[in-house]
Amino acid sequence: MKFKTLLLVALAIATGSVAGAKTIELLNVSYDPTRELYTDYNAAFAKYWKAKTGDDIVVKQSHGGSGKQARSLIDGLQGDVATLALAADIDALYDNAKLLPADWQKRLPNNSTPYTSTIVFLVRKGNPKAIKDWNDLVKPGVSVVTPNPKTSGGARWNYLAAWAYAKHRDGSDDAAKKFVAALFKNVPVLDSGARGSTTTFVQRAIGDVAISWENEAFLALKEFGADKFEIVVPSLSILAEPPVAIVDKVVKKKGTTEVAKGYLEYLYSDEGQDIAGRNFYRPRNPSAATKYANVFPQLQLVTIDAEFGGWTSAQKTHFADGGVFDQIYAK
Amino acid sequence: MASPFRQRSVLPGFGLSLGFTLAYLGLIVLIPLSAAFLKIAGMSWHDFVAAVASPRVVASYRLSFGVALLAALVNAFFGFIVAWVLVRYSFPGRRIVDALVDLPFALPTAVAGIALSAIYAKNGWVGQWLDPLWARGVGKLATVVPWIDWKDWLGGTLAFDRPGIFIALTFIGLPFVVRTLQPVLAELEPELEEAAATLGANRWQTMTRVILPELFPALITGFALAFARAIGEYGSVVFIAGNQPAHSEITPLIIITKLEQYDYRGATAVAVVMLVASFLLLLAINLLQKWSRRFSAV
């Protein structure tokens, strides 16, 4: 008898809490180096959404290599939003499982990328090998750490930035191919993801220079001390646009369309942009960009669309099986 | 003529337990594996060959099977010694050493890989002493026997090159050999050796003629288990291998790489080749074991 009443009370409480302020759960499927950014952002968004609608939001995060995360979504991971390293991985959600419409990138401002980043070098304190630009990376005796572009989104940006540098300098695709071939000859370890690569450079003391996401380089400095590492900014790099998108099929099933939309849109708000800047992503919003202007150095940035004709084409030429990256490793 | 199924077994429950066995094996082993074969059924022969026989993939088979074999052989030898010591001698702390053997079973493979690469890297505890020695040894070999590319085979460093793969595969394979040998060794009666001694056998003869033939089937089983485990190992190896295409890239990594490119079929095709090759190898080892058992019984 007593047990029954207890059960009833428990049931009443449980249903009561559902009927009143709702607790909504979102899953953000993201790539490796955004852990700190989204931990910050999720707290801010939960506060904003609570004030706006009264609902409690719990955002769960999932991180991993960008390609692997896309594959998890394709294989059925119930992620409400995808915030990945490159547009090609969100394109794959359309190509392989029709999880969202083909024109997903047009649904939010700035090609659906609320923040950008670029590719820089992380070197050891004092820069003992005097690395200043990309051409220093192909010199004999310089050991370079970068992840495998076939498995890591960040590494694809690294590779394309190097290619763009050589092409701008020498003017031809052949020269660029020779340049990246020489560069990868200097790579002793190809990790599968950006975090693994940073660990190899920072903790295992492998390599003279790590090619890295700008935010990842700043984070390594913050985490391991500016007395151990330095950031070197090359003369030219690539504008990395990590896009965000709602996974339509999942939000429709879970009924979270509105929250998911709000979650991504708030990234563009003043607070969202400020959090991005604080976590070393370059904000899009001009006022936030000015606030963090002294953090992010100015350099010549090329875009993937202008330089490589978009991700689909870059992927096919460079990273598909038998593509340029495979060719430079063929003996 | 009575079929074997009609004959009543002395033990009850044959039908029930056989049915359960088949259902269980089907659910756990056969269905997932047949899914792999189904996946590649839609591939054309040309695509299949292109996926599984490109130079990079072939290089990875050589590496995966070669290093796994080497690691299993080393484990068979040293695992035998460990098992021998644990069974035959009693010394303080034996229980602890015995429990230590199981650690590679229990440790998540990624943890093992990270720990091993931290220890054997140039700045690691072991690596800072051993790595220069290794590099010097390889360099010396290259001057003595210059017509073989030693650096390509043995690697310039311990971690983040081919030796790293060997280290990881040896680590994860050890308990298989020790744990299969231990019970057989414990069962081995000391009277056998005493009899051999009274019949005039010296220690070497006792070892090679009496003890080893008895242990050989178990040793082969342990070797086969360690070998099979090493072929498929991914988690620990990727952290310590360096993963250079066509050089220190193992086959499981090729499969993951293909998956990353959404090439599900290509990945499955390579997996099926590995599966068939491993199955044939294990079958051959099992036959060898059967043969050796008959041989030792005579």
Characterize this entry briefly.
Chain A has 331 residues and is an alpha/beta fold. Helix content of chain A is 49%, strand content 16%. Mean pLDDT of chain A is 89; it is low at 12-19.
Return residue spans of chain A where pLDDT drops below 50 for at least 5 consecutive residues: 12-19
Mean pLDDT of chain B: 89
CATH architecture of one domain in chain B: Orthogonal Bundle
Give the biggest beta sheet of chain B.
none
How helix-rich are the residues of chain A, as a percent range? 40-55%
Biggest contact: A-B, 32 and 30 residues
Determine Rg of chain A (CA atoms, Å). Answer: 22 Å
Instruction: Calculate Rg of chain B over CA atoms.
Output: 23 Å
Largest sheet of chain A: 7 strands, mixed
What's the total number of strands of chain B? 0
Number of domains of chain A: 2
SSE order of chain A: HEHEHEHHEEHHHEHEEEHHHEHEHHH
CATH fold category name of one domain in chain B: MetI-like fold
Residues in β-strands, percent of chain B: under 5%
Average pLDDT value of chain A? 89
CATH class of one domain in chain B: Mainly Alpha
Helix count, DSSP H or I runs of 4 or more residues of chain B: 14
CATH topology of the largest domain in chain A: D-Maltodextrin-Binding Protein, domain 2
**What is the assigned CATH homologous superfamily of one domain in chain B?**
MetI-like
CA(first)-CA(last) distance of chain A: 79 Å
Q: Strand pairing plus helix content of chain B: what structural class?
A: mainly alpha
